[in-house]
Amino acid sequence: MKHWVFRLLRLLNWGLVIVTMTAYLAPFVSPSEFWPLMLAGLLFPVFLVLNISFIIFWMVFRKWNFLISLFCILLGWGHIQSIYGFNFTASIEQAEESVHVLSYNVRRFGGNSKSYKKNISKLLEKNWDVVCLQETGTTIHQITRLKKHLVDLKKFKEIFPMPEKAGVILSRHPIEKTGILDIGKTGNFCGYADIKINKKTIRFYNLHLESTSISPYTEAMEQGKELEETPQEQAKSITKQLRDAGIKRAHQVDKIIKHIKKSPHPVVLCGDLNDTPFSYTYNQLSTLLQDGFHEKGRGLGSTYAGIIPALRIDYILTSPDFKTLSYETGAETFSDHYPVEARVTLK
């Protein structure tokens, strides 16, 4: 291969390393202060794949340039563990008084009346202690139908519905107190329930933060449809929506963090953050809470079932009082998300 080609590829490799390093900064800067960093964080999986490709390329040609990308990846190893779990030999630990938790953005259980009851029954067939659901529907019909099926299942003693916010917390244990946080004028929500389990009270948060609202574009891509907007107009619209949603989530999470810090009980936070581990939202929460995926997660742990690959945007986070015994991502198909489940115990 000609010398000038290697020189060009070396320059491209250095450019890739620079933008990758920029992505490493994204979790530490609020989008309300400098939103372009948020976009770099979103693109990190692409940067990672390109860096790995450069490593393989340089090694094939026996060039020491592979160290450029290798050093870059090792420098951000902690970030990489947030999107890929290396616990392939992880097994479910046994512990008395463990709590089995499920979090799932159900997207109205598929919406089809024929499959509605079947989907609920299948999802809740395990003996969960606490279930946090998002996008359960806000119409009177949807709320009534959900309550009826939950009563028919006879599994949950306590139900804390947030109908106007399309969320619900289900519990097999007594709920002592509930509340909904004021996170601004938005259709999204953050609610909590103090639940007494094994003589100990635990505060469970269920939240759904600001959506990026780019579904029309991703659905068009999945179905091969053409939009009226030009590619340039689409890119501009998507960038604006990502920016606006990122700024709103930053304000929302700041309010949620303040509330969590005042909690009188150990905390389990469940929900759809609509943000990846390379985000300010996730960083703020994971600084205060621990992510069981780090300890027990395996593989990519993707929770978004749409056309955009490798997105982990649904989480179960716990305060340091807990130990994670197991952490799994499910494979239900009636939503554009996958469920997340964890078994935790107080240390």
Give a verbal description of the structure.
The protein is α+β, with helices and mostly antiparallel strands. It folds into 2 domains: 3-80; 89-346, Deoxyribonuclease I, Chain A, CATH 3.60.10.10. Helices cover 41% and strands 22% of the residues. It is built from 12 helices and 14 strands. Strands 4-5-3-2-14-13 form a 6-stranded mixed sheet. Strands 6-7-8-9-12-10 form a 6-stranded mixed sheet. The protein has a two-stranded antiparallel ribbon with strand order 1-11. A hairpin with a 4-residue loop joins β4 (158-162) and β5. α1 packs across α3 and α4 (44-60) packs antiparallel against α5 (66-75). The longest helix is centred in the C-terminal third of the chain and has 31 residues, at 231-261. The protein is globular, with a radius of gyration of 22 Å. The mean pLDDT is 85.
